[in-house]
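Archive entry: two folds, one per protein. Generate the first.
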Amino acid sequence: MLIRADASQEIGTGHVMRCLALAQAWRDAGGWAIFAMAGEMPDIERRLKAYGFAVNRISAKPGSEKDAALTADLAISLNVCFVVVDGYHFGVEYQDRLKKEELHLLFIDDYGHAKSYSADLVLNQNIYAREELYRERDPGTELLLGSQFVLLRKEFQNWRGWQRKNPEIAVKILVTLGGSDPDNVTLKILKALQGLTDHEVETKVVAGGGNSHIFALETASKESLSSIQLVRNAANMPELMAWADMAIISGGTTSYETGFMGLPSLITIIADNQVRVAEKLEKKGLAVNLGWHHKLTGTIVAEMITELAANRNARDAMSRIGRQLVDGRGTSRIIRAMLARIIAVREAVESDCEQIYEWANDSDTRAASFSSGLITWDTHCNWFSEKILDPNCLLLICSDDKDNSLGLVRFDLVGDEAVMSLNLNPGARERGLAGFIIIRTVDELIKRYNISWVSAFIKPQNLRSAKAFERAGFSMNGPCNIKGKEARHYMMTNEDLIIQSPPIGFGR
């Protein structure tokens, strides 16, 4: 995928950082991603490159016709299967230019800023997202709306099963107000913290890579009666959020990260697009809305900190609601919706018999099978005739968006379990598609059947197949024996299949 997003002192780093979450998940599933940026922000570019993603420069005014043309040219030259666009300067003309080149487009939005929408997918991860914001859209545009689609970076995924234990009195405070904080709201919060008389209070303040007020923050930290530690350009936000008992944050993506981590929070608004987030999160009981930063006084901030720190019941409720609203599976749901656009799936029919026979007798296929001998035509025809009529078997043919065959996936159903096998078209191998095909077809399976877990059995030496299933979210359940031969049992359990449950958007 090609990701077109910008970061700067004025707009912050939020657009790029949430796209980073999608890039990481896409790569984990077997793809690759590259960023295209117009402005220069060295710290954020270094961070992207440290994560292993290349950054291309777009030499044009952000959102302009030239920007769209250069982005389209870059996407075509790289032969990407999806373009992701995130930013308020990208409008309807920008979408139309990319769609004119027959590029698949995911458009990330926050409040319906474009006049209309022609993208394949429009994503609004905010808690207030609703269909009415996107009434002017093409018939083929699908909406992905709400907190079930929140983009969380890879470092948060390891904390999905973690449970917070709120202390009787909160004494560890995390302050993080975005990647740049141009109005230096962090300093106002620090001065309020200086007035706290409880010397047991510990504070960690995160200053993003675009923050230009470091000297003032360092000075204020040293003057505080309580312990204040300044953390620059933190790369371990989940650990910092797990350390803290409560947080003071802005109403951007961080508010969903603290929700996922069950971290009770006070939210101050530092940009127009944060107003509805802060209001809705307070209404849901997820956080306390302090309102606009310029209306805050040190006294108000200190009072609200003290009040929430002493109210364990309120903090327990915030932790519980946060995990309910943000379950950490948003990127998986988004990738499923993207794959539905680029991988077509249909049930096998009689006319597929010969092609499946050719795939089955491919030398690599036979080597990976637990019965490695060549299959006769009569044997195959009898097997195929039985399988397409068997109500406990699902044969799915996969193809790309240009109708090129990719391979066959078979599910054998036993009760609420499905056993999966994959046979790629030899011409579709070596393209990193296997993981995507597994994700896509498991999604199709869940739409049709009530399944609690999916199994796959793989020869120990078939490392390529094992890696594909791991990329698709399967875990190894241990060794086993299939037809007298050693095998590895991979499983996707009900806990992982839960990503299939919430509805995808509001249809096309």
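Generate the second and append.
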Amino acid sequence: SLGMKDLAEMLRTADEVLEASGTPGATGTEFPRCVEGLGDLKHLRVGYRCAAVKGFFTVDPSGYIRGCNHSRVRIAHHTEWEKASSHPRWRSFALGTFPLPESCRGCGRRLNCDAGCPEVHQAGWKEVMET
């Protein structure tokens, strides 16, 4: 996986490509605010807050609602969509109560940063943050 410096370099490269092509862009996944150099990007918009279930959700090929395209958790079948809002995973996205990586706990930016993608947290974001 990429470390913090590699993530920053990747985003700067994307910003340069967008500048050269004369188009704006955006990341499809949130990044933690502590990735160095994000404030210097002029053509690439970087998200810091997870919009899953608050701004969108996904339906997988089997017809199951998931919080986002990164999530493996099936929340409810689309025919039972009214059950989704009571599912613990849906509620953790909606309320922002998903667990944070150890390295992000106690950070003063919590009100405007979700420490990256919550689903990546489950898959080992801590390892990324430490490299």
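Annotation attached to the second fold: The helical segments are 4-21, 88-95, 118-122, 125-129. The chain has four helices and five strands.
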